Predict the structure.
Amino acid sequence: MRKLSKLILTLITITAFTACGDSEKKEKDDVKIGDYSQEAPKKEAAATSSKDMVDMSNKGIGPVKSVTLNAEIDKALAVKGETVFKNMCTACHKTDKKFIGPAIVGITERRSPEWIMNMILNPEEMIANDPIAKQLLLESNMAVMANQNLTEEEARSILEYFRTLDEEI
């Protein structure tokens, strides 16, 4: 009885393995080794990081068309902006380093006040249509900036807070 069980088990195993095979013979793959006598095609230079890109002429897309900044920073407005920033933005942004979104330090030296406020107020359209915002999206691994539904006054206060950060550099 044991010999019969072993024989049946062996036949089932052999049948299973042979049934899984392909009945058609496959042609041998032609492996070609590259011709190293030719120069490799030149790769295009990588896109410049948005952190390195300075564009003060781009006003962005959104409700803010013009912002007049005083030479002196409005400390009271900056304090309000810091509060709004800490409540609404720090889930994704750190002031001094990249987190989910880009670092904030130096932003007022690279972007126009209008661009900054429009990015805060209108991130969806900025990401869809503004070349700098598109680059930022790529650099942040496609993490889309959420619209926090802030007012222009709140965005202006955040801008003033950003100015204090850049003043410290």
Notes: Helices lie at 2-20, 75-88, 107-110, 113-121, 123-129, 131-139, 152-167. Residues 78 and 160 are 5 Å apart (CA to CA).
